[in-house]
Specification:
With 136 residues, the chain is mainly α. 75% of the residues lie in helices and 0% in strands. The relative contact order is 0.05.
Amino acid sequence: MGHEGLQQLVLAVTESSDERLPGNARFACQAIIAQLHAVQTQITGLDKRVTLAHRANADSKRLEAIPGFGVILSTAVVATMTDPKAFRTGREFAAWIGLVRVVPKLLELAGPLVRRCTGFHANEARRQIGKKLKNL
């Protein structure tokens, strides 16, 4: 259906001369369309508030300069991150927001250990790595 289909439905519901919809269906669709308009109004208001908060915060503006960061993400990061110095590296910060997965780094570090081990020790090392991956 998509956006165009929704617009066609709105036109069919609002035009009383359109007889494709029975009366009860038209009444139900009018209620749904009114709710959609109300939600759109609320979203627009929230978007304006987030944009104002973003413009008022220098940290949020700096974060927006990062590729992939927009107004919403930069404002959310500033609102939830209490102390930026808690991150030792940019990689830790990127992992915290979900841009970098920690698992490849762990596997990179564990690879030589597993290659050196044989038999029982290799199985034990793999088991330990599996435990760490489950806890991430």
